[in-house]
Amino acid sequence: MAKRALCPGEARSAKPSQPSYDPGMARKRNPARLVVALSVAAVLAVFLLYTSIAGGGTPSVSPSELGAQKGVVSLAGRVQPGYKGDSYGDGLRFRLRDIKGGSTKTVTVVYTGSVSDQFRAGREVSVKGELRNGTFVAVKDSLVTKCPSKYTAKKST
Amino acid sequence: MSIALVLGALLAAACVVLVALPYLREPQAERDVLEEPSELDRRRLELAEARDRALAALKELELDHRTGKVSDEDYRALVGPLRREAAEALRALEPRAGASGRVKVERPG
Amino acid sequence: MPELGRAALVATLGLAVYAVVAGAYAAWKGRRRLALSAQNALVAAFGTSIVATVVLLAALVRHDFSFVYVAEHTSRELPTGYTISAFWGGQEGSLLLWLLILTGYSTAALLVNRRSARDLVAWVTPVLGGVTFFFAFLLVVVATPFAVQAAPPDGSGLNPSLQNPYMMAHPPLLYLGFVGLTVPFAFAIGALLARRTDERWIVATRRWTLVAWTALGVGQLLGSHWAYEEVGWGGYYAWDPVENAALMPWLAATAFLHSVMIQEKRGMLRVWNHLLVVMAFSLSLFGTFLTRSGIVSSIHSFTQSSIGPWFLAFICIVVFGSLALVFARLPLLRSKTRLESLVSREATFLYNNLLLVALTLTILWGVAYPILHEAVLGESRIVGPGYYNFFLRVFGLPLLLLMGIGPLVAWRRASLRSLGLTFAWPAGFALLVGLVLLALGAGSSIPGLIAYTFSAFVLASIALEFSRGTRARRALSGGSWPAAFSALIGRNRRRYGGYIVHAAIVLLAIGVAGSSAYDTVSERRLTPGDSLVVGDYRLTYRGLEEREAANATEIRAVLGVERGGDSLGTVQAGKNAYTAERQVSNEVGIRSDLITGEDLFVIAEQVNADGSVYVRAFVKPLVNLIWLAGLVFVLGALITLWPDAREQRRLALRYEGAEAPARP
Fold first, then answer.
1. B50–chain A nearest CA distance, Å
2. Residue C455 pLDDT > 90, yes or no?
3. Residues of chain B found within 8 Å of residue C118, distances taken between Cβ atoms
4. Where are the alpha helices (DSSP H) in chain B?
5. Which chains pack against A, by 3+ Cβ pairs within 8 A?
6. Pairing with C32, which of A150, B83, C347, C653 sits 20 to 30 Å away (CA)?
7. Judged by CB atoms within 8 Å, which residues 588-607 of C form the interface with A?
8. How many angstroms separate the CA of residue C533 from the nearest CA in chain A?
9. Which of A10, A18, A20, A25 to mutate to test the interface with B (most CBs of B within 10 A)?
10. Rounded to a whole number, what is the distance in Å from the CA of C288 to chain B's nearest CA?
């Protein structure tokens, strides 16, 4: 095949012919877009289905806010001095107060299950359960103790 | 404290030297222009990538055929267009005198 | 000496500013020497970061408690190894580690690529400089590691849960991953800024992405292993927001690794790839923001610090800036090829991407929802493991299946008939395995059974690939089976390395399914002589032992282990009481059965004054496959990463031709 010398300013035709891109195909919609659209719809459907059945998370309340909710909530508070009982036996009874704010209201929690070694008066904890007859009855093994300010990693769940 | 001062000064000096290095090496540079690929270079690159893609696809098709993933009839259906694609890409990239064509080419005769 | 450290950080900040300003100007106006100078500035920034690092390290090793950081994170009795790892045990030090790795990676990326693709590198420099600027700024203005005080006699010591070999390696590896994602991001943005439409940026960053992704994966496994052994609640992943913070960028990077292959082979999905790399990088920034800012209640939280808003601002700049740039360059990024068939390897990669992104976004929503709910409605909520586990199954199980389908499907277009033939053996095998497992009682967990069946399918398809490939190689060039096998892998490193990585993920899936869906647990209070039965094991409590270690008092409950009447030795579980830190840590006892891969996991929940203990014991089947998967993962990644001389030459030829134009 004879080569033709290129004049300055002239460029050889650049596009290689692409057998997979024929004019007929160009008018058809890209199946990829359809797949993406269907998938997004499917994912949203699954998501909405799940959240409508299982709900959007468990409410997290502080002791002063407790009382208005029905059902299982997550109670977050600071452990007050003077707790007793055995969580591995008849139950640990301790009182929680708000972590932030000036409320002096305390809630008595009855808890069975694991207790982290970090648990002590003054520590922030959260526990799942329900308010029953004025006492917060906790779900077994749901107590999580946060360590103060340092990089920490203790949990007892 | 004084050691810290000396080390700090040395560090600062080293940084300045390093940053100024290109200017120290070439106080008078004839060509201080950052080369950007020209339109022709870009097309050539596109072609080169298309060529490599076609060749790699052929190689994979061979491998898939040999390992039995692609049946004989599928292979026959696919290999033709792929070979044509590769041939076109290679042809479009045919080497000519002066790699980029920016050089003024003398007309023959 | 702290002044030297501070000066080094200020110098880094100044160099980063120069790299951004001079680099951007040089790239815009096309000034070669200025561009080189900007790149050198980033190299110099690496040098100054090293100086700052050395200053802090020296202070740590010398127990120089006049440094606030050293006093807060070490003590005199702390073993040297942990004294050094305290470098990244706190906010400021870990930021410095991030800066060090960032400038190191930037230097390497620039130096390797500066001779070729000069115009691309010219734009990459200000992007890398911008990220460096952010971290240097934080270290100089917001969280300096070089604050000084009147030296106390001793430090507060390192958190006992960090005094563990895994915690020494976990943060650096994670950072190698997080920071590593900066390089492909910078090259992607640089390519857009330079208005390049070719794949140069992908070719340049392929190995970087792989290294970062591998490091991130291994770092997370180490974290899980630490959680399993050290935190000791019986699990290895709690869907804690900070754990998710590392998982999300890893998932996005996994999607990116796959979709980039499509761009390489078919020139498709260019816009998608740019978006994915922006997503992966932004998620890595978001991840470290979550960990550091204290915005989520998590057991990982660092000190409540003011660093959060800065990170948030930077993430917003990155996300919006990148999206604006992608949108502006949209016409350049249009690909010329189309997806030919919904039954093709490209299509399976697309499905894989969609599932991975869906999973990532679901996890992101789970993390963000409590924060948003509280910010908007004032009421705080908690998203529990139930949510995550549900979506992990919904998206993860199909992903598992796709790992087996993908390799069996041809590129461009696969006929259903040929698919049927290639699928026959693996599908049949999987069905058989499923039925056998069902008969053995695995039906107690349907997701578990599905996971096992899909895993069998994938393993069978991978084994088939290797055997067919070896046979074909041998038919081609003769030789023995082992020689053909290694030649096969040697000549197709990316493909077969990838298969090994898939095998690792399958092992992970089997381990996770076994240990979470089929585990047993038992608990009791024991006095000496009492027994506890869990699964096939009988544990008999013998008594307590107490001993003194370097910086702690260790108390252990000794339990004899029997199975089927045979004595299997003892297992010890208890607590450590750390003197300087005044904290107690939980030390679990684990007996691993190397044949079945199961663990007997014993927690001494409560040690009582009267010598009795409350013990909780688990039997976790197949859990050791998870850690084995880590090793296989690294092996596969190494094979994929291994330099291929032939490919390097071909790529060099391709880019040299277009970038070294003849000069008159």
1. 8
2. yes
3. 34-35
4. 2-25, 39-66, 72-92
5. B, C
6. C653
7. 603, 605-606
8. 18
9. A18
10. 30
Find residue A127's DSSP bridge partners: A75
- CA R_g for chain A: 31
What confidence score (pLDDT) does residue B91 get?
Answer: 85
End-to-end CA separation in angstroms for chain C: 55
Task: Determine the Cα angle at C47 with ends B23 and C90, to 5°.
Answer: 150
Lookup: tokens for A89: 């036996």
Question: What's the rounded Cα separation, in Å, for the pair C472 and C464?
Answer: 12
Chains contacting B (3+ CB pairs below 8 angstroms): A, C
Please report the pLDDT score of residue C472 as a whole number.
87
User: What are the sequence ranges of the domains in chain B?
Assistant: 38-95
Binary contact (C586, A154; C-beta < 8 A): yes
8 Å CB contact of C299 and A146: yes
Q: Does C62 touch chain B (CB under 8 A)?
A: no
pLDDT for B59-97, tens place per residue?
A: 888 888 888 788 888 888 888 888 888 888 888 877 653
Contact check, Cβ <8 Å, A153/C231: yes
Per DSSP, C539 falls in state: E
Across chain C, which distance is largest between two alpha carbons, in Å? Answer: 94
The radius of gyration of chain C from alpha carbons, rounded to an integer in Å, stands at: 27
**Which residues neighbour C526 within 8 Å (Cβ) at sequence distance 6 or greater?**
C532, C541, C557, C612, C613, C614, C615
The list of chain A residues with pLDDT below 70 reads 1-29, 147-157
Beta strand pairing call for A135-138 and A106-111? parallel
Of the two residues C163 and C555, the one the predictor is more confident about is C555
Averaged pLDDT for residues C206-212 = 94
Confidence band for B1, pLDDT divided at 50, 70 and 90 = low
- The answer to whether the Cβ–Cβ distance between C3 and B35 falls below 8 Å is no
Residue A117 near residue A154 (C-beta atoms within 8 A): yes
Q: Enumerate residues 6+ apart whose C-beta is below 8 A from B99.
A: C657, C660, C661, C662
Contact call for B99 and C662, based on CB within 8 A: yes
What's the pLDDT at C296?
A: 67
The highest-level CATH class for domain A60-146 is: mainly beta
- The distance of Cα C36 from the centroid of its chain, to the nearest Å, equals 33
> How far is Cα C365 from Cα C372, in angstroms, rounded to an integer?
10
Residues 456-515 of C with CB under 8 A from A: none
DSSP letter for C535, please.
T
Q: Within C30-117, where are the H helices?
A: 32-61, 68-73, 80-85, 91-113
**C554: alpha, beta or left, given left = phi > 0 and alpha = psi -120 to 50?**
beta
**Beta strands C613-620 and C520-526: pairing type?**
antiparallel
Looking at the complex, does the CB of residue C553 fall below 8 Å from at least one CB of chain A? no
* Contact list, C340 vs chain A (CB under 8 Å): 20
- DSSP, residue by residue, C129-150: HHHHHHHHHIIIII--TT-B-P
CATH level 3 topology of C164-339: Four Helix Bundle (Hemerythrin (Met), subunit A) (1.20.120)
DSSP state of C67: B
d(CA C74, CA C163): 11
Mean pLDDT to the nearest integer, C336-344: 82
- Taking an 8 Å cut-off on Cβ atoms, the answer to whether A117 and C585 are in contact is yes
Alpha helices in A19-97, H assignment, sequence order: 23-27, 31-54
Cα–chain center distance at C247: 7
The closest CB to that of B47, out of A7, A14, A20, belongs to: A14
ipTM of the complex: 0.83
* CA nearest neighbour of C557 among C599, C614, C601: C614
The side-by-side arrangement of strands in the sheet containing C589-592 is C520-526, C613-620, C599-607, C589-592
With CA atoms as reference, the chain A residue closest to B107 would be A5
